[in-house]
Known about the structure:
Distance between the termini: 35 Å
Family: Belongs to the ABC transporter superfamily.
Helix content: 25-40%
Domain ABC transporter: 4-229
Organism: Methylobacterium adhaesivum
Structural class: alpha/beta
Subcellular location: Cell membrane
Radius of gyration: 18 Å
Strand order of the largest sheet: 6-7-8-3-9-10
Protein name: ABC transporter ATP-binding protein/permease
Bound molecules: adenosine-5'-diphosphate
Largest sheet: 6 strands, mixed
Amino acid sequence: GGRVEFRDVRFAYDPARPILRGVSFTVPAGQTVAIVGPSGAGKSTLSRLLFRFYEPQGGQILIDGQDIAAVTQTSLRAAIGMVPQDTVLFNDTIGYNIRYGCWDATDAAVREAASLAQIDRFVSALPEGYDTPVGERGLKLSGGEKQRVAIARTILKGPPILVLDEATSALDSFTEREIQDALDKVSRGRTTLVIAHRLSTVVNADEILVLDKGVIVERGTHQNLLDAG
Length: 229
Ligand code: ADP
Ligand code: ADP
């Protein structure tokens, strides 16, 4: 399962200023659709609506044919994994941070997720700036390493649907390449909605939608869009 459909979705934070003006697209189960477009286009708003942080004022959002208006936020959070732009760590070990929200997971499962995200060496470490025991230093994690914590958490949770929010935008190009590989692994076989600034980070998407001022202005594969210039 995990087919996601937006049908003529309309939304405004302020009635005088529409943000989404009739957005329709489908992410078939197991496929990847990327939304690209300039800052302010409404991309993050789409993901907030998918989590029901806000309700659309027109149209519908469906998961496997069911309108999410009838689904609780708790169920949506179980069905949809999110790798956000900035990962905020909790005041505990990296292992705890990976397990967060997935309390039944065994230590072995946490280690395996950490290993797939290539942070297994950090599992029992405490991040810098948190309540480390007197005399001990916390571990300073880079932006890429923090993102790997979010990736490991998502691997452990194993949701059918993924939202990747501009997941590599804050990283240098080498780290970005590495994180992109990790994300490609996580999204394989899952329904994935990628929110991105640049076409170059979404080469492998099954479909790319270009959102501008709340409407989809172009759609196609990476090659189609390059050909269209
Ligand atoms: P994108 O992700 O494409 O950069 P967003 O969906 O974050 O765009 O924002 C679209 C527009 O909605 C922007 O003009 C932004 O300023 C506005 N906006 C975002 N969040 C809010 C909010 N909570 N209240 C009012 N306006 C908002
Ligand atoms: P913003 O632009 O306001 O920083 P984002 O677009 O980065 O927000 O994130 C969209 C929303 O998803 C945020 O409100 C964030 O709190 C929420 N979010 C982040 N991680 C998760 C998660 N694992 N599950 C559900 N919601 C999440």
